[in-house]
Amino acid sequence: MRAKCKQCNYPINTCICDAVSLVIIPIKIIVIQHVKESANAKNTARLIKLCANDVEIITTDSISEMELLASRCSVQSKALLYPSERSIALESQREHIASALQTLLVIDGSWKQAYAVLQQFPWLSSIPSFHFEHAPSTQYRIRHTRIREGLSTLEATAYSLNTLYNIDTQPFIKLQEAMQDNWRGPKSHQRET
User: Fold this and answer.
1) For residue 121, what is the domain's CATH number?
2) In angstroms, what CA-CA distances link 156 with 61, 102, 159?
């Protein structure tokens, strides 16, 4: 087993601690991580937790934590970042959302996994949800996908924070870049540019 850095939890030879900058955010971020994504070395949810002050990651196999989350999500100050038929463009309601929001839920996984999370936990569909109208292009190049406009979980979270609260996204993007620069995985997982 490879030795891991005690701070970032990456292998010592791919440590990204030098790229970590703490960002103070005004809301809580809860990442609901598909159980298969939690074992993925390329997942960006753990980068969000390294970079921001109030982030919690719950994996879908932790039923008790998901049940507790369901009981906490009955109030209107929560929102889900997920494009659905009922979702509203985040940019169009920016001021209203920013003033009312206390917790943003973000699903971490592939599109297929995100859909499976919604099927497994149907109560998530009762929470107000938001999508992007004008999201930036992704800079996440080490995943294997055909969806060109798809953002990493980190990028989607950073864009949400920037849109709602004008928070600088560079600490997030810099950390994602450091992780990608240190990536030792197969070339087949590189996004074509």
Assistant:
1) 3.40.1280
2) 23, 17, 5
